[in-house]
Model the fold of this input.
Amino acid sequence: MKNNKREQEVEHKDNGANAGSAAVAGLVIGGLAGAGAALLFAPQSGKETREQIQQKTVELRDQAAEKVEGAVSQVKDTAQKITTNLHGKTEELKQKGGELVDNAVSQVKDTARKVTANLQGKAEDLRKQGEEIIVDQLDHVSAAAEAGKAALSHEPERKNGKHS
Done:
């Protein structure tokens, strides 16, 4: 049993081509055998026999030519169908390939947008944290400055001997 439809089609086409060749060969061989038998058993003169052989030869030649033309025509038709089918499959594959590329590009763009949005969110968070740290540090610096001011303002009292 064949594994896929394509193998079955190829085998069927091969069998069809072989059957056509066998039919032509059978026709020619059968015609020659019939003509030979007729010659052997015909009660006629040599001249009549030669004329009959010539007539049968022409008939067989014409029949063989018709069969060959039919077989050639059938092969051309089959080749044309296969070519058309292949062109269709090629176009189908091109479209599918294009769709796959488009989908991949779309996915990459979506991922890039998500990553960009995520990075922008993180950058905003870091900016806010930085502002908070700066405010805290400014508060510490201000407190230290106030403490320094206060210490300086009490220092003259120390020099004078006053302690608070």
Observations:
- The chain has a mean pLDDT of 78.
